[in-house]
Amino acid sequence: MPGAQTNKKRGKGRPLASARGVGRDALIASARELLMELPPAQVTASAIARRAGGDPALVRYYFGNREALLLEVAKQIGQEGHQLPPESGDAVELLADFIHSTFRFTRSARYMQRLMIEELDSTNSPEMRESVREWNRYPVDHYSALKKIDGAKELADFDPLFLHLAVVGISDFFVTGRPLIELLVPEGTDMDALAKRYEAFVERLLLEGLKKR
Predict the structure, then answer these.
(1) CA-based, 20 to 30 A from 109: which of 64, 77, 153, 174?
(2) Tens of pLDDT along 1-53?
(3) Mean pLDDT of 79-100
(4) Cα 6 from chain centroid?
């Protein structure tokens, strides 16, 4: 009968799932969740959409492609971990605080470093390359500021870039290399407690190594 039609046509190009609340923020949140569980290569558009409860077409609709979505995720995580370089204070204490901050950031964004490396290796996007450069300049600038604050009083000379690479590598492997670490410790080991002991060990290792003799 005329007027009895119940199916409504959706707007051209707009995925139906977006009308059910699966929007841009939901896709970003789902991508971030997956990056805590899986290496970036396994975080596909389909996996992200499935976690969000929508269709993979939503990734194309909101972001254009998976790379752009992961770039947005990386931007958000990078901004959350950003700290302005200090201008004053106790350089040794500030260094210890920043080491712990890096560990916290690594735990909160398990595959962030691998995401940056893998996406940087495969991208042709100047924006992606510049964003990665900028995010990694923050900690290098932070360490440079600590050297300036210390004025060669307590800390031996060090290269801020090398220190950044060392701290990132040390903190990142304990998170991403957990399956290997679990093979090396007794079964039933409290991994959270072990992580705290490891972090304290790294703090002592770096501070003692950087202090003047």
Answers:
(1) 64
(2) 444 444 444 445 555 554 456 789 999 999 988 988 888 888 899 999 999 99
(3) 88
(4) 46
Q: List the Cα angle 80/39/84 in 5-degree steps.
A: 20
Residue 155 φ then ψ, to 5°: -100, 135
The sign of the dihedral angle between the CA atoms of 176, 177, 183, 184 is negative
Backbone phi and psi for residue 205, each to the nearest 5 degrees, phi listed first: -60, -50
CA distances to 78, 110, 191 from 116, rounded to whole Å, are: 10, 12, 26
What is the percent of the chain where pLDDT is above 90?
Answer: 48
Task: Please list, residue by residue across 31-41, b when 16 or more beta carbons sit within 10 angstroms of its beta carbon and e when fewer do.
Answer: bbebbeeeebe
Q: Which residue in the block uniquely carries the two structure tokens 């993979």?
A: 56
Span 106-120, mean pLDDT? Answer: 75
Domains defined along the chain, listed by start: 16-69 (1.10.10), 81-210 (1.10.357)
Residue ranges of alpha helices (H) inside 64-125 are 66-80, 91-108, 112-122
> How many Å apart are CA 57 and CA 13, to the nearest integer?
9
Q: If pLDDT is split at 50, 70 and 90, which confidence band does 89 have? A: very high
Query: What is each CA distance from 198 to 14, 100, 175, 192, 205, in whole angstroms?
Result: 49, 11, 11, 10, 10
Residue 49, judged by CB atoms within 10 A of its CB (0-12, 13-18, 19+), counts as buried
